[in-house]
Specification:
By secondary structure, this protein is of the alpha/beta class. The chain has helices at about 15-25, 50-55, 70-80, 95-105, 150-165, 180-190, 195-200, 205-220, and strands spanning about 5, 30-35, 60-65, 85-90, 110-115, 130-135, 170-175, 190-195. The chain has an eight-stranded parallel sheet.
Length: about 220
């Protein structure tokens, strides 16, 4: 089943617990946490202490997306803070295989992320190792950006590999997804759709999550 995954990057951090409860009321079961270090991407967000606080106020799956340099150094701290699954950027990992194995050795699902300009083929040697692949449909670092259409081509290519190679990794997308393009993303083969501004900047985030879940349910993937 396709999941709508709210991203707290666009939430009101002054009342973050309330914002999280609102998307839970809409039926969300997974929460996306963007971790930015101001080095790998031009922005800074949160660290393990905030993840630990979020863990205390929700039972939702915490989908921790590390947009940081040297992720191996910080992975244990985020696991300790309460992450349920962790994704790292192909572009940030000198030894990607080792990093993914590190996450899995700690008992967590491991994901790999591709920036818009990075080809899908760079993942061919680790697709049998990952639990999910996250395709960035904007350049990482800031919320509220416009969707890059080429991301759909990458989702389709990965879905085709998944079926041809008999693999079971999930496909996730992050950036610029809204009510207008959500159905296209689902039809391309995506399983988890991260949405930030479209949800948290709406008048009623709970109702928005519920509406997006309904749109996703009605969109039938087109296999090519």
């Amino acid at each position: 089943m396709v999941q709508i995954v709210p991203s707290i990057l666009s939430a009101d951090f002054a009342r973050l617990a309330d914002e999280i409860r609102r998307v839970e009321q809409g039926g969300a079961t997974m929460l996306h946490l963007d971790i930015m270090d101001g080095h790998f991407v031009p922005n800074m967000t949160i660290g393990p202490p905030v993840v630990e606080c979020i863990r205390k106020v929700t039972q939702m799956t915490l989908d921790v997306h590390l947009m940081i340099t040297d992720p191996d150094r910080y992975i244990p701290a985020f696991i300790e803070a309460g992450a349920d699954q962790i994704s790292v950027h192909q572009e940030a990992c000198v030894h990607l295989d080792r990093t993914l194995r590190l996450i899995r050795s700690r008992g967590l699902p491991a994901g790999v992320v591709l920036n818009p300009a990075t080809p899908v083929a760079t993942l061919d040697e680790v697709l049998d190792l990952v639990d999910f692949v996250l395709i960035m449909s904007v350049n990482p670092g800031f919320g509220g950006q416009q969707f890059i259409p080429g991301a759909l081509r990458k989702i389709r290519a990965l879905d085709q590999r998944r079926r041809q190679w008999n693999l079971s990794f999930k496909l996730e997308i992050d950036g610029g997804v809204n009510e207008d393009n959500l159905a296209d993303v689902v039809r391309a083969g995506c399983d988890w759709i991260v949405m930030g501004a479209s949800i948290f900047r709406s008048p009623d985030p709970a109702a928005t999550v519920a509406r997006m879940r309904e749109i996703a349910r009605e969109a039938t993937p087109v296999r090519v």
